[in-house]
Amino acid sequence: MAKTLFKGFSTVQGPKTRKLHDIELAKQDLKNHFHTKRGERIMSPSFGSSIWELMFEPWNDTTEESVKEDCIDIVAKDPRWRLAGIETYSSDNALSVQLRLFYQPTDQLEVMALEFDREINEEV
């Protein structure tokens, strides 16, 4: 039986707390970081993603490079992950980011797709 390296929990799936371990915990932590707007976390104004601030900027090389730099910075803050590649897409209503990541403890490749919806951003 494989030894558990990381333990945590999630309340995302509903009112019942769900235990997370290892790679599932690392994926949820990374998603939480991306879906937190920079400056939104109390006592930690530099935590979060600046992608939310770029949502309504014209999609050009500068904006795309800013999104990629933000992804590189966020992944670099979590030692469990190593970034292998980034692809970004923009449509009328959303920004999409696809990350190719290696989970360091097992050197397992994971593809993580993140969606940043402009309509959801307006409601918040």
From TrEMBL:
Pfam families: GPW_gp25. InterPro entries: IraD/Gp25-like. Residues 27-98 form the IraD/Gp25-like domain. This is IraD/Gp25-like domain-containing protein.
